[in-house]
Design a protein that fits this description.
two-stranded antiparallel sheet, about 10% strand, Helicase, Ruva Protein, domain 3, 7 strands
């Protein structure tokens, strides 16, 4: 026990460069949101009828990741709750990637009004009735924020249909919905009745440019770090990297926070541009690793086959050569193999994810094919794939030499 106390006592005595690192997390809602005044005013003007006891229009909010959609919506919602006096206004935030079924959403909403709902087991109609009754026990206006609403549409939009029609079942209360999505096209897959009801108003969030991201970072950095910790080029570099990633302020904040953490771990008293570059590499590595881990088994087998071909020294790794190797691996992984065309599609998906790179080349009268190269270091890629229990038997596989020639 004394060793443990001594270990942490030593680390604490070294001090730190952060004042409040949580300010750099995406879950933090600041008191000011630079360069989002137009969107704040637009959303506030849509929601202001709630303060008069009227039903605000439903709103759909679109924009790429890291453009401030969630922060603005939470900020305006908090202001609305604090401003309401005569008429009670409640704002309920739901992340639909986490709470992703009709039952869970209704149960979550009912619990917000102190109704005890089991995690599973009740008919959905009963959960809906409990929520509706709890909602309607006094006069109020409720704003339900559905972040990543497109996740619900992909699973069937019964919950959206029910929520968009709930006002017809209420006597005292009124409900308004705010849907937030990174996908500007998700409404194409929505029931037309739900689409017309949900999209009464729309707000689009444009990406930030590098200068705007720098302003956001400066605002957060003054609270997050102790004085004189950041060298001059740190914030512009974080902003430039994030602006290159389609104006993603969330990525910029992650970069700045991880840069600080790397500096702290190396016992540096300042954060430098080198720490930012290391943080970018770490974020990219973590992203790729997470993508690879969550791939379907068939895609993992295709990737593993490409790694083996690379290890064999195959000069031109084409789709046909990969398919031949993949077919040999499937029995070893106790799985059926897919068609050549489907494997071509999987290779295209892996290319889109940035895990490999394909170039279409002409074979003259023999048609065209794709030449494939790996974009991720093969040894690292192999170690991630072999963490999957279904692929572990492939670790010592001996592949016939003809595999490299697609025979």
């Amino acid at each position: 026990m004394s060793t443990s106390r001594g270990l942490f006592a030593d680390l604490l005595s070294q001090g730190g460069i952060f004042q409040d690192r949580d300010v750099l997390r995406s879950t933090y809602t600041p008191s000011e949101l630079p360069h989002r005044e137009d969107q704040i005013n637009a959303l506030a003007s849509i929601l202001v009828p709630a303060l008069r006891g009227e039903t605000p229009s439903n709103v759909l909010i679109y924009g790429k990741t890291g453009t401030g959609k969630t922060a603005v919506t939470k900020f305006v919602g908090k202001e609305l709750e604090e401003t309401s006096s005569g008429i009670k206004c409640s704002v309920i935030y739901i992340n639909c990637e986490v709470i992703d079924t009709q039952y869970r959403i209704l149960a979550h909403l009912a619990r917000h009004f102190d109704k005890e709902i089991p995690m599973t087991g009740w008919p959905t109609d009963q959960v809906y009735s409990e929520f509706r009754d709890a909602l309607d026990n006094e006069k109020k206006v409720v704003i339900i924020m559905l972040d990543e609403i497109d996740k619900l549409v992909k699973k069937g939009d019964n919950i959206l249909y029910n929520l968009s029609r709930i006002n017809s079942d209420l006597l005292r209360s009124k409900v308004s919905l705010i849907g937030i999505s990174n996908d500007l096209r998700f409404t194409e897959f929505m029931d037309p009745r739900v689409k017309s009801s949900l999209g009464e108003d729309e707000i689009v969030f444009p990406p930030y440019n590098a200068e705007q991201i720098k302003d956001i970072l400066e605002q957060r950095a003054t609270v997050a770090f102790k004085q004189s910790i950041l060298t001059e080029g740190v914030l512009p570099l974080c902003a430039a990297f994030a602006a290159h990633e389609h104006g993603d302020a969330r990525r910029a904040l992650d970069l700045l926070r991880i840069s600080g953490e790397l500096a702290e771990r190396s016992h540096s008293v300042i954060v430098t541009e080198d720490h930012v570059k290391s943080a970018r590499d770490k974020i990219e590595q973590d992203r790729v690793e997470e993508v690879i881990k969550t791939l379907p088994t068939q895609s993992k087998l295709v990737l593993y086959g490409i790694i083996l071909l690379d290890e064999l020294g195959t000069r031109n790794i084409t789709t046909s050569v990969v398919y031949n190797m993949y077919k040999q691996l499937c029995p070893m992984a106790d799985t059926d193999y897919l068609t050549h065309r489907r494997i071509t599609d999987l290779i295209a998906e892996l290319d889109m994810l940035g895990i490999l790179h394909t170039v279409v080349i002409s074979k003259g009268r023999y048609g065209r094919t794709k030449e494939i190269t790996l974009s991720v270091f093969p040894r690292k890629l192999k170690s991630i794939l072999l963490q999957d229990i279904r692929l572990r038997d492939l670790s010592n596989v001996n592949v016939p030499m003809q595999a490299r020639f697609g025979i």
